[in-house]
Amino acid sequence: MLARIAALTERPLSFIRSFKYRRTDSIPNSSRREMDFTDLDSNATKGVNLRLCSVSGCMTEILEIRADRPSFHVVFVPGNPGVITFYKEFVESLFKSLGGTASVSAVGASGHTEKNWEHGKLYSLQEQIDHKIEFIKVQHIESPLVLVGHSIGSYIALEMLRRLPEKATYCIGLYPFLALNLQSKKQAVIVKIIMSGVLSTMVTLFVASLSLLPRRVLRLISELSNGKSWSNTAHEACCSHLPQYHTIRNVLYMARTEFIKLSETPDWEFMRENQEKISFLYGIDDHWGPLQMFEEVSRQASGIALSIEREGHTHGFCCTEAGSKWVARHVASLIKNKLAR
């Protein structure tokens, strides 16, 4: 998704707002909300709830489904942008694929929210890691804990595994971004933007200015830029979050700290020590998690379970219903096999 934001200097992205919210209690200042997803799968036994909770003093968007009698808890960490509503279909499909045996909580990134709750504060990669650890503590997430991350969320999930060795039993990385890809032209463009104060400001102002356009114009831009494969949920998430000035600033700032940290050599020793607890899913043509990295992981930590997705879904699988459902089924299969062993 960061590559799409970088491309905004060439053609606009789409933003359309149509999420409807209703509070789940009558307290005026309550931070708990439920999202009314009109396209919710009628076969789902439980609906997806979007709520706000305070984590380390930061208002955080949580997308979740709670099982009646969970045998474990899945905590999902998004990529960057960390707008959790992109993953509505994924969370929904994962819960169904697990047969309602597990609760699923997807934790949005600090500062990547619809409203400017934190008054423009910027959050680094390390602060996002600390934020997810604190979420598990303050929400009293039950054990055993299964961690699932997408893109840079895979790196965050690994760090959570490091800091929660007794509680976390399994870690799955989806299209993982674990190291810089020096052969990627897209990453080279992104580096120029995020490392330049002037270019970062220009991109931020441009993206934020799109919110001033009429809705019908935004929809047209959406169809031209992203095609019709994107789900309504993905378009809605774009509209409600990405045009926000504070959100784009956080997206670019987090990316800057990502690129600095991931220029270091991955901690292969840690991965080898925990290889029985780790699985990765790679894509065929993914510059964030290229197949060269797939091969490097297999050499450095041969015990890690590796898969390659060959169904034609992209790194941004969460933007399509087909991608969300396929990846959810794959994750559920990994979890079931792991727990069976």
From TrEMBL:
GO terms for cellular component: lipid droplet. Keywords: Hydrolase, Lipid droplet, Membrane, Transmembrane, Transmembrane helix. Its main location: other. Pfam families: LIDHydrolase. It is found in: Lipid droplet. GO terms for biological process: lipid storage. GO terms for molecular function: lipase activity. The keyword Transmembrane helix applies. The keyword Signal does not apply. InterPro entries: AB_hydrolase_fold, LDAH. The chain crosses the membrane at residues 189-213. Belongs to the AB hydrolase superfamily. LDAH family. This is Lipid droplet-associated hydrolase. It comes from Gossypium stocksii.
